[in-house]
Amino acid sequence: MKVKRSERLIDITQYLMSRPRTLIPLTFFAARYESAKSSISEDLAIVKRTFAARGTGILQTVPGAAGGVRYIPAVTREFAETFLQNAAQRLAEKERLLPGGYVYLSDLLGQPTILNDIGRLIATQYVRKPVDVVMTVATKGIPIAQATASYLNIPFVIVRRDSKVTEGSTVSVNYVSGSSNRIEKMELSKRSLREGAKVLVVDDFMKGGGTVNGMRTLINEFDAELVGIAVFAEAIFSGKPMVSNYSSLLRVDDVNTQEQTIVANPGNYLDNTTFLDELAQPVATHS
Amino acid sequence: MKVKRSERLIDITQYLMSRPRTLIPLTFFAARYESAKSSISEDLAIVKRTFAARGTGILQTVPGAAGGVRYIPAVTREFAETFLQNAAQRLAEKERLLPGGYVYLSDLLGQPTILNDIGRLIATQYVRKPVDVVMTVATKGIPIAQATASYLNIPFVIVRRDSKVTEGSTVSVNYVSGSSNRIEKMELSKRSLREGAKVLVVDDFMKGGGTVNGMRTLINEFDAELVGIAVFAEAIFSGKPMVSNYSSLLRVDDVNTQEQTIVANPGNYLDNTTFLDELAQPVATHS
Predict the structure, then answer these.
(1) Are A110 and B158 an interchain contact pair (Cβ–Cβ within 8 Å)?
(2) Is A5 near chain B, with CB under 8 Å?
(3) Chain B residues lying within 8 Å of A57, measured CB to CB
(4) Complex ipTM above 0.90?
(5) 103-122 in B: which are within 8 Å (CB) of A?
(6) Could you tell me the residue ranges of all domains in chain B?
(7) Cα–Cα distance for residue pair B198/B180, rounded to 1 Å
(8) Coiled-coil segments, which residues (chains A, B) (predicted)?
(9) Is the pLDDT higher at A178 or at B92?
(10) Which of A41, A151, A236, B186 has its CA 20 to 30 A from that of A198?
């Protein structure tokens, strides 16, 4: 039975949102709704306009016989600014201060709505850039990896500091923990990363960059390619950082255990991202 | 500027899907689109019908001055059956067999599309049941917890087997690992679970139920309430299982290391779930 436009628009929106960065042929929708391709084209033009107007993301049209449409999640600068200001404020709550000057983050990184926004923000940096897999290290980076991978619609892999019988053969590397200057070990299941894969590294917190640098070594061991680094929060680090070219959503500028204060601000993310409202001709990469 | 129906339907769909189980007042949409409440009511009736027809979920209407609408994700029986049959087939791939008869799952549990379906399936069991928080134990349960929490739109907490300075004060319990019969320890940050919270426990794999039983002990220590247990896969266990009343999406019936075979089937999930197409008058619980 032919489906009305109103119902088509609702289901197209639902369908695309559940499959980011995936090319859907027009013929798929035409068959699904028993409607003419010309009607579907009109539907998609309305979806595209509405997604752009409401800051939902990009609807990319790929012309030709092998063409179709692709929904690419991306946020506007205003959305990112508001999110990061609120997040910085929450990060600075003095109740987060732990002995030793550590900052408690587990509540924030256990909230799906916050994680989804983090994922959308990081994914916005890869609208024009191909990525095959997101990598993180257990435990606290996992939710960020999963949220990011979900909006990029690619798999994520988890590097571990301990060995597990459920991972099979692994490749392990030693790395220098930047903050403590100790030699540590991390490993990744051999079958989880293929040669040549383009890898985006994410983590919850970076200080000195030792852990991220360890993941870079691991990526080299797999003959894969590091295409980007994104962390939720970076700490001011007095020494020489072990990585450059990373994105930080937030920056912890000061932790004063005596006065019980935390100073947090948006990180460098806002300066090195092209937002939905700033993109001219977006090109997506995942099919 | 008044927004056309076609654009309203797209944006309402997008807005609701991003906020599962959250009550949205009609007045919110009326203001957002500068449209009459009667027009919004008509829009929502179309969304409700389409969501039901396409197996997207329930659009619950709450009448009265404090009322509004609420999108509750849920799947149909057919969707669940198809997903579980495919997942069982993948689980039985002989390449998954690891030394000691362990089964490699990390690739499946690192794919956002699979995780999202797992989350939707588990969330379907809680359409009528209040849940405040999802709990799991590090590491492999985390992606399942996050996906489930995302569709329930509630936080998740991570129990750890090791101590971390970034967790603050913790409560720890000892538990008997069902399969190895050893005494182990697990702990949870004190500030991450409040008294009386209704907790859904999830994990990737269960054999004997020792780990899940440990989480039950922990929930008791926090004076919280266990409202359900869901695991991705359970293994056939010859001894007396330490938990009953759990849901398993899949069941590993046999692992033969000599003949290199794994036999996997859908678990008890299909038998103890009321699906989208079987619900009479759904009642949601999260506002």
Answers:
(1) yes
(2) yes
(3) none
(4) yes
(5) 103-107, 110-113, 115-116
(6) 5-73, 77-274
(7) 30
(8) none
(9) B92
(10) A236
Structure confidence at residue B165 as a pLDDT band (50, 70, 90): confident
**Positions in chain A whose pLDDT score sits under 50:** 282-287
Residue-level pLDDT at B264: 98
Quote the pLDDT of residue B281: 57
- Segment B233-255 mean pLDDT: 92
For chains A and B, count residue pairs whose Cβ atoms are closer than 8 Å.
169
Say if the Cβ atoms of A100 and B191 lie within 8 Å: no
Residue B179 pLDDT grade (very low, low, confident, very high; cuts 50, 70, 90): low
B171–chain A Cβ distance below 8 A for any pair: no
The residues, ordered by sequence, that sit 6+ positions from B264 with a Cβ below 8 Å of its Cβ are B88, B89, B91, B92, B233, B250, B251, B252, B253
Give the nearest chain B residue to A47 (CA atoms): B10
Structure tokens at A154: 């690619």
> Which chain A residues contact residue B166 at CB under 8 A?
98, 102-106, 140, 205
Q: What pLDDT does residue A281 have?
A: 57
Distance from CA of B252 to the nearest CA of A (A): 15
Nearest-by-CA chain B residue for A96: B168
Kindly write down the DSSP assignment for every residue of B58-115, as one continuous string: EEEEE-STT-EEEEEE---HHHHHHHHHHHHHHHT-GGGB-GGG-B--TTGGG-HHHH
Architecture of the domain defined by A77-274? 3-Layer(aba) Sandwich (3.40)
Q: How far is B104 from chain A (nearest CA, A)?
A: 6
**What three-state secondary structure class fits B160?**
strand
B49 touches chain A (CB under 8 A): yes
- Using 50, 70 and 90 to split pLDDT, how confident is the model at B287? very low
Distance of residue B95 Cα from the nearest chain A Cα, in angstroms: 10
Conformation bin of residue A153: beta by default, left when phi > 0, alpha when psi is -120 to 50: left
pLDDT at A116: 98
Tell me: cis bond preceding B217? Omega within 30 of 0 counts: no
Q: Which residues pair with B201 in a beta bridge?
A: B135, B229
- Topology of domain B5-73 in CATH is Arc Repressor Mutant, subunit A (1.10.10)
pLDDT at B285: 47
- pLDDT of B182 strictly over 60: yes
Q: Which residue of B has its CA nearest to A152?
A: B112
Contact B155 A49 (CB under 8 A): no
For B143-155, the pLDDT digits (tens) are 999 999 999 999 9
Helix axes A142-152, B142-152, angle to 10 degrees: 60
**pLDDT, greater one: B64 or A280:** B64
pLDDT value at position A2?
Answer: 81
DSSP-derived letter for residue B19 is: S
The rounded distance, in Å, linking the Cα atoms of A269 and A80 is 9
Residue A91's CB: how many other CB atoms inside 10 A? 23
